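Encode chain A's predicted structure.
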Amino acid sequence: MKKYEVVKQNSLFNEIIHKGKFFYNNYYKIFYLEKENYKPNFGIAVSKKQGNSVERNKIKRQLRNIIDINKNLFKKHFNYIIMIRKDYNNLSFNEKVKELESLLRKEQNEK
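Encoded structure for chain A:
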């Protein structure tokens, strides 16, 4: 994930969460809000309940990698905030990738 693809402003982060729609499973909750630009932007939210800062940063690094692998599954013209849910730490990396892919494919099929 490149720097220009990251949602950094706190106001935009809150706007996506409060005004946007969402879909979720046991491991991810994804908020999205339509925007004008063509390329999607991403924000990652990890709760302090997930562990100490080292564990949270590891989760964020893994999630950025998973997003890079699956960018084609995200719709253009949207900002996304991906929140990690509590059972996430129990999964292996391959299971994390499969869960996100299945969630995104499920959401595409419903629309």
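DSSP finds three helices and four strands in the chain.
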